[in-house]
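We emphasize that the prediction below concerns an isolated chain of 103 residues; any contacts that depend on oligomerization or on bound cofactors are therefore not represented. The input was used exactly as deposited, without trimming of termini.
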Amino acid sequence: MGIVNVESRTFERMLARFEEFARRMDALCHAHRIGESDPWLDNQQVCQLLNISKRTLQTLRSNGSLSYTQINHKIYYRTEDVRSFLVVLEARRKHEQRRRNGV
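Result of the prediction step, given as a token string:
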């Protein structure tokens, strides 16, 4: 490995540009809530949360009940979307249980 000498003025400009780049990336991540409050879930995690099979999950995707994103043949779901669907699913289950009990 070789040693590279850089003038201090050049180094300071490089450092300033890198810091500006880091600030821009932080702003973009914050604006799009990447990595903090809105993580993505994969198929297995969603199946466990909803207590459903992989085939049922595929049916939910196919009929548009649950939105998803596909990246390189892997499917991801936003936590917010899964939570919203979970509320709907629980309401359906309660309604079905009431209907069975005759209430």
